[in-house]
Amino acid sequence: MVGALLRLLSACGGHAAEGRDGLLWWRDLARCHAGELSVAVVQGNNVLEDQCRVESAPPLGTCLGVFDGHAGPDAARFACDHLLHNLREAASGPEGVTADAIRDAFLATEEGFLALVSRMLETQPDAAGHRHRRAVLGKKVGRTGQITAEQLSSEHNANEEGVRQELMAQHPDDPQIVALKHGVWRVKGIIQVSRSLGDAYLKRAQYNTEQIKPKFRLPEPFSRPILSADPSIISRCLQPSDCFIIFASDGLWEHLSNQQAAEIVHSHQRAGSARRLIKAALHEAARKREMRYSDLVKIDKKVTALVPD
Questions:
Q1: Spatial contact of 210 and 217, defined as CB atoms under 8 Å apart
Q2: CA–CA separation, 211 vs 215, rounded Å?
Q3: Residues 219-232: what's their mean pLDDT?
Q4: Are 174 and 183 in contact (CB under 8 A)?
Q5: Structural domains of the chain sorted by starting position, each given as residue range(s) with its CATH number in brackets
Q6: Who's near 115: CB < 8 A, 6+ residues apart?
Q7: pLDDT band for position 207 (50/70/90)?
Q8: Which residues pair with 206 in a beta bridge?
Q9: Sheet holding 35-42, edge to edge
Q10: Please, what sign has the CA dihedral across residues 130, 132, 133, 137?
Q11: Which of 47, 159, 252, 284 is the most exposed place for a label (fewest CB within 10 A)?
Q12: Which residues lie closer than 8 Å to 27 by C-beta, 6 or more apart?
């Protein structure tokens, strides 16, 4: 993933420092169509499940994607390789980038991945998906110079009451559509997310077979998709007080609040913003586990962060 990201960022321009420290890789600053960009990734799993992609060129402008994989990297890699291409295709008409074009791009990517799963089912039956990512806007408050965080993205997580209500409304005949296991709400007791790309075994019954791992298999048949690939789309006009946006996977948000992350970016120079965020999250994770930071970075989960200004 890091090699591909280097190639993508080289197209954005800029010559700021990039480097690697163990499993942490960063590009401190790069120019893009919309301004400047800082990127960092830390790998804790044997296989990095996160993927990210940056493209900056007309007619789409700057497109950033953070694809958070689970149970394997395959769906995240597929989405990384195909989603922005599908968006260019969907937005090639006279109306350009619209909510419908974005939705069409997601659904085309989903169909492409499920078709790939169908072809690979005999040799690679486990279908993974992408999940928790968040976009947070940092904006100045009045004339004080202080920064406040505004979350732009919705979280399709069964731990959210609104998501559970949505699932129960969509599946009124299934009393087990959400289940509490070990203090965590999960869809069908298996997965936390309610929307994803991939996770074919929860969308089409023909993939819910003995070929997949027992922990992912549903004991009962189903006639309609349990998870959805339909994205939530938010359109927001930028204001003069808006300063930056943080795109990151769940590894960051498990340890930093929206406001903490925004203040870290705001209180330092732009170069290295993403690297500082990841290091702050790792230090907080080490504190929670009563470990040294140097020991934690050897075992902690993957984190991807992008900060465009």
A1: yes
A2: 12
A3: 89
A4: no
A5: 2-154+232-308 (3.60.40.10)
A6: none
A7: confident
A8: none
A9: 18-21, 24-32, 35-42, 303-308, 242-249, 133-141, 146-151
A10: positive
A11: 47
A12: 5, 6, 9, 16, 17, 18, 37, 38, 39, 40
Helix, strand, or coil here: 96? Answer: coil
The pLDDT confidence band at residue 9, using thresholds 50, 70 and 90, is low
* Angle subtended by helix axes 74-90 and 99-120, to nearest 10: 140
Among 75-84, 213-222, 244-253, 295-304, whose mean pLDDT is lowest? 295-304
DSSP characters over 201-216: GGT-GGG-STTS-GGG
Measured distance CA(186)–CA(291) in Å, rounded: 30
Helix (H), strand (E), coil (C) string for 105-159: HHHHHHHHHHHHHHHHCCCCCCCCEECCEEEEEEEEECCCCEEEEEECCCCCECC
Q: Angle CA(64)–CA(135)–CA(305) in degrees, nearest 5?
A: 65
Report the percent of the chain where pLDDT is more than 90: 31
Residues paired with residue 149 on neighbouring β-strands, in sequence order: 138
254-297 confidence digits (pLDDT tens): 899 999 999 999 999 999 999 999 999 988 988 887 787 666 66
